[in-house]
Specification:
Elements lengths: L3 E2 L6 E4 L3 H12 L4 E5 L13 E3 L3 H10 L4 H8 E7 L9 E6 L1 H13 L4 E5 L2 E7 L2 E7 L3 E4 L2 E4 L8 E4 L2 E4 L9 H8 L5 E8 L2 E3 L9 E3 L23 E5 L2 H10 L21 H7 L7 E6 L6 E5 L7 H9 L9 E3 L2 E8 L16 E3 L9 H19 L13 H12 L23 H12 L4 H23 L1 E2 L6 H8 L7 E2 H6 L5 H5 L8 H4 L5 H35 L17 H10 L4 H5 L6 H14 L1
Parallel strand pairs: 1-10, 2-3, 2-11, 3-7, 11-22
Antiparallel strand pairs: 4-6, 5-6, 8-9, 9-10, 12-13, 12-21, 14-21, 15-19, 15-20, 16-17, 17-18, 18-19, 23-24
Bound molecules: flavin-adenine dinucleotide.
Flavin-adenine dinucleotide (FAD) binds next to α1, β3, β14 and α9.
Length: 636
């Protein structure tokens, strides 16, 4: 094979067009640098390998943050979503989360259209087989047919494809996911580099022809009315037609069939070595782990508006096909189900994220970034968040600007990266709200207030988003001031109306904003009091509904939770005094007096860049941090 150098050089090359790759390429191009997205197939850009859904608890937070930084995922979900819900709607705003069931085809089309219309971005279809590495720096990539592409930074986002092996029962074959080839040459090349590598696995359920499902007697699960919108710039009118999901469940017979089939399960016979996702287990895993449960819920989710295929969420499996058929047909509603695609598990290589910097650049090869499933995570949202960050930092590197990663108290993206890099992961990592210690600050409703200004400063946020954001921010301030000035007096409300709106009789005059602080008073109830009403612009016939809804929500949250939020902010300030203290690259932990051997080793291995990050490494005690601070002071 005679190599051919592509006539144009790039600043950043992104390898892989999944969820990490598309956000990485878009972020890098938005930053104004010449970006190339190289992927095995342009047809599979933005493809959802598993369930067609975006968001959910913890994940929805990531999607909003990606949106706040100008990313694509929320807008694609708005254009592709066929059922929207707010999960935990009755709980506090910190854990409320948006989830969209998506039409695969519409979602992919939305992502592709954004990529094709992005200035500074070139798409090219080829499999990457090699990296050009000289003097511990990456200089480009070589494709399977020998085309050499040169760039100053390369972002690898190759998902489950590295040495991918697909299992159905005791049969297995090589593949990146069903229908796509694995990435073996690149996997061999990466294994030759000094990164720590491991194997993980994930799985997917069989798909079913919806026409062979009997929906009689199954629980209907409609979307919320009015439907939530994912993107801060999104409108309800972006959504296509909305549909219902349904719910069924496994039963004792299903469980017997699974148990009987386990002697031919690749998981239970040791054929699969990779560790699976604890929080998205296969159905055979559930039967074993929760042996006393006689039933597990299955959500029947449509794959799209133009297909009959459905996704039975909850029965991911790699059992042999005959067992899959029996187990599916033992389930209520699925008695005559036709399986259109068997379920399977896939094993793949991942790289220990502790070998990365917080920018997601690898520690051993300058200019080489990893993002997405390759770092041991699972999920589209986790991948997209890392992709955005890696694309951004790759672009910053080529612009010779300092890297940026949000802190744990700024964004779930910060929590994700910090967890991965300080702790590593031995099983597929997914996001939960419980992973964030500053949950009250990191809400879905304020991701833009937390991140959009920073995104603008970095170069990620375009004029349209910036203008909307500024209008919204000013409107929130104006509305808080207006409500603070509005006075409601006892004579303004009859006793009956007061009870209805406030849950109590009003004994003395009160400011509108103070009334809103009461848990039982909603913004809508307050605005229905004549003396409060709504801001004039909200009453106008051509009111921007997005703006009005977002401002109302924000004012309400600020009124009700300010006390708690302030307390959390104080705690952060206290911790931050040392959080940002830099640990120089040259620090020699052997020279830090009093540190135990174990702590020394852990710090040496992780090489955290700040004291805050050092403190979060498991085994690094507060006493060790004090010794470190003394050492730093001595060095000055
Ligand atoms: P991917 O979406 O996998 O994208 C990788 C991209 O890289 C593809 O476009 C591919 O064509 C391209 N590529 C690969 N190698 C090369 C190369 N050498 N050159 C050029 N391009 C290349 N997540 C969950 O949260 N829950 C689940 O239940 C779940 N189940 C899953 C089941 C299966 C069978 C699979 C395959 C995945 C599952 N996932 C699940 C994971 C989810 O699909 C991934 O987390 C997510 O897609 C990762 O995004 P990514 O961008 O890192 O990689």
């Amino acid at each position: 094979m005679i190599p051919m150098r592509f006539p144009q050089d790039f600043d950043v090359i992104v390898v892989g067009g999944g969820h990490a790759g598309t956000e990485a390429a878009l972020a890098s191009a938005r930053m104004g640098v010449r970006t190339l997205l190289l992927t095995q197939s342009i047809e599979t850009l933005g493809q959802m390998s598993c369930n067609p859904a975006i968001g959910g608890i913890g994940k929805g937070h990531l999607v909003k943050e990606i949106d706040a930084l100008g990313g694509a995922m929320a807008q694609a979900a708005d254009r592709g979503g066929i059922q929207f819900r707010t999960l935990n709607a009755s709980k506090g705003p910190a854990v409320r989360a948006t989830r969209a069931q998506a039409d695969r085809v519409l979602y992919k089309a939305a992502v592709r259209s954004m990529l094709e219309n992005q200035p500074n971005l070139t798409l090219f279809q080829q499999e990457v087989a090699d990296l050009i590495v000289e003097h511990e720096r990456v200089h480009g990539v070589v494709t399977q047919t020998g085309i050499e592409f040169r760039a100053r930074a390369v972002v690898l986002t190759v998902g489950t494809f590295l040495a991918g092996k697909i299992h159905v029962g005791l049969t297995n074959y090589q593949g990146g996911r069903a229908g796509d080839p694995p990435s073996n040459r690149l996997a061999d090349r990466l294994r030759a580099l000094p990164f720590r590598v491991g194997r993980l696995k994930t799985g997917t359920p069989p798909r079913i022809d919806g026409r062979t499902i009997n929906y009689d007697g199954l629980l209907v699960q409609p979307g919320d009315e009015p439907a939530p919108v994912f993107s801060y710039l999104g409108r309800r009118s972006d959504h296509p037609r909305q549909v219902n999901c349904h719910i069924t469940a496994t039963n004792e017979r299903t469980h017997d069939i699974i148990r009987a089939g386990c002697d031919r399960s690749p998981m239970y016979t040791g054929v699969i070595e990779g560790v699976g996702p604890r929080y998205c287990p296969s159905v055979e895993d559930k039967i074993h782990r929760f042996a006393d449960k006689t039933s597990h819920q299955i959500f029947i989710e449509p794959e799209g508006l133009t297909t009959h295929e459905i996704y039975p969420n909850g029965i991911s499996t790699s059992l042999p096909f005959d067992v899959q058929l029996d187990l599916v047909r033992s389930i209520k509603g699925f008695e005559n189900a036709h399986i259109t695609r068997p379920g399977y598990a896939i094993e793949y290589d991942y790289f220990d994220p502790r070998d990365l910097r917080y920018s997601l650049e690898t520690k051993f090869i300058g200019g080489l970034f990893f993002a997405g499933q390759i770092n041991g995570t699972t999920g589209y949202e986790e991948a997209a968040a890392q992709g955005l960050l890696a694309g951004l930092n790759a672009a910053l590197l080529t612009q010779e600007r300092e890297a940026w990663t949000p802190r744990r108290d700024e964004a779930y993206i910060g929590v994700l990266v910090d967890d991965l890099i300080t702790r590593g992961t031995s099983e597929p990592y997914r996001m939960f709200t419980s992973r964030a210690e500053y949950r009250l600050l990191l809400r879905e409703d304020n991701a833009d207030l937390r991140l959009t200004a920073k995104g603008r400063e970095l170069g990620l946020v375009d004029d349209e988003r910036w203008a909307f954001f500024n209008t919204k921010r000013a409107a929130i301030d104006a509305e808080v001031t207006r409500l603070d000035k509005a006075i409601v007096r006892p004579q303004h409300l009859t006793e009956e109306r007061s009870l209805e709106l406030l849950g109590t009789t009003l004994s003395r005059e009160a400011h509108g904003f103070d009334l809103l602080r009461r848990p039982e008073v909603s913004y809508a109830a307050l605005a229905s009091i004549e003396q409060v009403g709504k801001a004039d612009w909200m009453k106008a016939a051509d009111v921007d509904e997005r703006l009005a809804e977002q401002v109302q929500l924000q004012v309400e949250v600020q009124a009700k939770y300010t006390g708690y939020i302030d307390r959390q902010q104080d705690e952060i300030e206290r911790q931050r005094r040392h959080e940002d203290t830099r640990l120089p690259d040259s620090i020699d932990y052997a020279q830090v007096r009093g540190l135990s051997m174990e702590v020394r080793q852990r710090l040496q291995e992780a090489r955290p860049d700040t004291v805050g990050r050092a403190a979060r490494i498991p085994g690094v005690t507060p006493a060790a941090i004090s010794l470190l601070l003394v050492h730093l002071k001595r060095r000055q």
